Amino acid sequence: MLAQRLLRQVLLSRGTAVRLGSSLAASGDAAAVEQPAKSSPSRTRPKSWKVDGLVVKPDERWNLTPSVMALLERHLHAKPGNPLNLIKQRIVNHFHKTYRKAGNRSPLFTVCDREPRVVSLFDNFDSLLTPEDHVSRRPSDTYYVNADTCLRAHTSAHQHKLMRQGFDNFLVVGDVYRRDEIDRTHYPCFHQMEGVRLYSADELFGKASGEQFGLFASDDEKRTPQKQSELSEDASKVLEIKLKQTLEELCLALFGKGAQIRFVDAYFPFTHPSFEVEVFYEGKWLEVLGCGVMEQKILTSAGVTDKVGWAFGLGLERLAMVLYSIPDIRLFWSEDSGFLSQFADKQPEDNYKYVPISVHPQVYFDLSFWLPDRPSHEMSADVFDLIRSIGGNLVEQVSLVDEFTHKKTGRTSHCYRIVYRSVDRALTKEEVNVIHKQIEKTLVEQYDVQIR
Ligand code: FA5
Ligand code: MG
Question: Which residues form the FDX-ACB domain (predicted)?
Fold first, then answer.
């Protein structure tokens, strides 16, 4: 049953991919603008490609597929009512509330959620000290546009540029792309939020102690498992504590006191020491983010010479899966209204648990009627209740889709759309019609409406 449902979700998202892919040339910001150079069905390489306001020239390193190009069009984290948009807002709200500039007038962290998704190899790899032979550079791992650019594989790709532009404290949110496996917790496009915080000595140790403790080590200090050679032991330790505190507070704000989280040692080319955070979810530890003390060489090359910092990169799908009990990452790409409608009316701070949707098809019926001359104030609420009490579990969604008052007669009309769906079988139109007629009949009897 579960396997069947998952398969359907994958097919659903693939189906979407194909549909969107075929309309690439017609649509806005990620459009193929010239004839493909190569006619492979899975790798259609355009001569020139416009994406996020940039025009890039694919070459023989191009390995994007039409389905990945379709994912670029989805902008899930920018869609109001999408669970990724909700969790992004919730995390941003938490940071804005908790961390303020001196005087409490404005939020400390700048939010960047519209960075271009095609980045230079320098930004994606070199600026972050990723070794030449690192696996992440392989064409089997990264989507290359040409010899100089790729789809960002992580939001860390924006660290260097933003620091060079003078930003000290920022959050970067967006979709990232990797030629990764596909399973319950991995997808080739997913969403990350990067956090970077830089500190002067005063900011790190406090004004009174800033002069007493230094940020930097003397020349002859060695790199150890605990710290980089450039940083003082004090600076490295305090950064690590502040980073862990920040992430613990975030997990507390998201999941409450009951959640089990742990830090495990990790390796990243751009941080040292490095950690991952895991959350206990459905009987297993699930990795949700990577973090660490930023390599000082990166700050130096970005022109920051008098500060030190930490960074984290969190996986928004992984956090949303835990927060909303979404069992499979592929569901985020679903366009099934049974999934989307569950989040459509939610606020970022709402605690909500996802109810698995049925694999069986939906059957829609509209219900239109004139209201009685003196309708009750709660007419819509009454109608919702009545529909649910007669339709029971077969009613998946109800919404008021149209309402107007007739100019001459002064009568008001309501139209409700009812989506019927069973969790265990495919409904026929005929059997739904019987229930629908029953709803109409009861409405007329109890509320004196006139069916249109
Ligand atoms: C990184 O991407 C680092 N840039 C994170 C980082 C930033 C470390 C700043 C230190 C400082 P990693 O590849 O582990 O690390 O990905 C980070 C998170 O993204 C993971 O913990 C996971 O939550 C999520 N993630 C990674 N791959 C996938 C995938 N294929 N599908 C869904 N989520 C993924
Ligand atoms: Mg990882």
Answer: 358-452
